[in-house]
Amino acid sequence: MFGFKEGTTLVSHTSQKGKLVLLLSIMHHDDAIDHTTKEKKKPEITTYYNKTKGAVDVVAEMKGTYSVSRKTNHWPIFFSILNISGINAQVICEENVGKKMVRRTFFKELGLSLCKEYMEYRAKIPTLPGELLQKIKKYAGIETSASIPIATGSRGRCVICTNKKYRKTTICCISCNIFICREHQFFFVKTAPKEICLRS
Hints:
Elements: E1 2-5, E2 8-16, E3 19-25, H1 44-52, H2 54-65, H3 76-97, H4 103-123, H5 130-140, E4 149-157, E5 168-173, H6 185-196
Helix pairs in contact: 4-5
InterPro entries: PGBD (IPR029526)
Protein name: PiggyBac transposable element-derived protein domain-containing protein
Organism: Rhamnusium bicolor
C-alpha cells in the first residue's frame, strides 16, 4: 500500500506474516516494485533502504560503544544528539587533520577541551579546596605554583595555628614541606612566597 503527499511517499509492506514494514521516503515518488524480489514483490523503497542502511547500523554501533546516555525519562533525545554530535565531530576533525584518530583518545580530548574554559575559571576561585585545585590545574594544563599546598601521606602540625588549636593536617607546601591546615590554605597561598617559604 502506498500513500503520496507533497513530495513524500509512504509505503506499508508485509514481508512476512506478522511483520509489517512502514517506510517514508522523499526520494521515491511512485509505487514501483522491485522485480528482482520475484514473488515477494517488495517495493523499491524497501529494497533501496536495505541496500543503504549500513551507515545507520554503523552509527548505532558507534553510539553504543562510547555513549554519554544516562538513565532518565526526560533527556533521551538530548543524549542521542550528543552521541551523534561526537561522531560527527570526529569525522570532521579527521578530514581536517588528514589522519585517523582513536575514538577513545578523541573523545577524551574533546571533553577536556569543552571543560577547559570552565576549569580555568574555577581555578581562579580563592576559596577552592587545594586538592580540587590541583586536579583542575592538572587536567586543564595550568602551571602549578611552587607554594600551592598539596596532600601528603604524613601528618604534621599547622605552622600558622596557635598553640591553643594545635591542629594537625596532611596538607603541606611542595616547596618548603611545611604543614598547613585547610583553614589557612588561602592565607598560605597568598603569603607563602614572602612570609613562609622564605623562612624555611
